[in-house]
Write a structure and sequence with these properties.
This protein is α+β, with helices and mostly antiparallel strands and 262 residues long. The protein has a single domain (2-255), classed as Endonuclease/exonuclease/phosphatase (Deoxyribonuclease I, Chain A). 24% of the residues lie in helices and 24% in strands. The protein has helices at residues 15-25, 44-49, 116-137, 171-181, 188-192, 224-227, 237-240; strands at residues 2-7, 29-33, 52-57, 65-70, 75-78, 92-97, 100-106, 142-147, 186-187, 218-222, 230-235, 251-255. A six-stranded mixed beta sheet has the order 3-4-2-1-12-11. The chain has a six-stranded mixed beta sheet with strand order 5-6-7-8-10-9. Strand 3 and strand 4 (65-70) form a beta hairpin. Helix 3 (116-137) runs parallel beside helix 4. InterPro entries: AP_endonuc_1, AP_endonuclease_F1_CS, Endo/exonu/phosph_ase_sf, Endo/exonuclease/phosphatase, ExoIII-like.
Length: 262
């Protein structure tokens, strides 16, 4: 099974890129972030025509998450992260797809800091940590995939010194990510490439993409029973090279699923 996450940075304007990627790479499950479209603006017919079912939570101009499942309709189990009834941002959706419980998330960026946006980022992270532990403890196959807006270590960025003030590299952000991993989750891309510098995001400034001045902020965290079945993981860099591309590239993991009895 191939599971992927992709911050599309606007599903309406980059729908051709998304469809080209789905046709070429054919992930079994794809988690999308930053739809930047209301629910009624989600291109369901085009997704169906590409061979995928979908659940989504949209928001006009901002945020928005979706889960696509090849050859079937994912079964939605949750469409917001618990812990704050006042939070109306579309940043989390969860569904059962191909026998795996998939949580698709778009964690807040947190800039500028200090300030309310960084406080919101950390509070959202704490809610995720609180929710993820009992999810992991179920023993069910689970993937938490998305744009975490966290650079886990200095090895995950081309040059940390120019980003020291950014919310993505703050000690509080990194500590929260480490505490999430400490529950037992496996960072699939890092597990598959323990000694390589792998990037998933290149911003639009100063020729960062042509110069490969990237960051790793898109992560797929696997439950224990999936982590031991990893076959490969990587980044579809060719998508970032398309004209007017998203500043993210799709990130994926492939693992062997256990045989079902019967």
């Amino acid at each position: 099974m191939k599971m992927a996450t992709f911050n599309v940075n606007g599903i309406t304007s980059r729908l051709p890129h998304l469809l080209e990627w789905l046709e070429r790479e054919q992930p079994d499950v794809a988690c999308l972030q930053e739809l930047k479209a209301p629910d009624r603006g989600f291109p369901l017919q085009a997704i169906h025509d590409a061979g995928y079912g979908a659940v989504w939570s949209g928001q006009a101009s901002w945020n928005g998450v979706a889960i696509l499942s090849r050859g079937e309709d994912p079964i939605e189990s949750r469409r917001s992260l618990p812990g704050d009834a006042r939070d109306v941002h579309s940043r989390y959706i969860e569904a059962l797809a191909h026998g795996v419980l998939v949580g698709c998330l778009y964690l807040p960026n947190g800039n500028p800091r200090p300030g309310p946006k960084f406080d919101y980022k950390l509070a959202w992270f704490e809610r995720l940590i609180a929710y993820a532990q009992p999810l992991f403890d179920t023993g069910y196959p689970v993937v938490l995939a998305g744009d975490y807006n966290v650079v886990p270590t200095d090895a995950d960025i081309y040059d940390p010194k120019n980003w020291r003030r950014d919310a993505l590299l703050q000690p509080e952000s990194r500590d929260a990510y480490e505490r999430l991993l400490a529950q037992g989750w496996t960072d699939a891309l890092r597990a598959a490439h323990p000694n390589e510098q792998v990037f998933t995001f290149w911003d639009y400034f100063r020729q960062h993409w042509p110069r490969n001045r990237g960051l790793r902020i898109d992560h797929l965290l696997l439950s224990a029973n999936l982590a031991k079945r990893i076959k490969a993981a990587g980044v579809d860099r060719w998508v970032r090279d398309l004209p007017k591309a998203s500043d993210h590239a799709p990130t994926w993991v492939e693992f062997a699923m256990p045989r079902r009895n019967g």
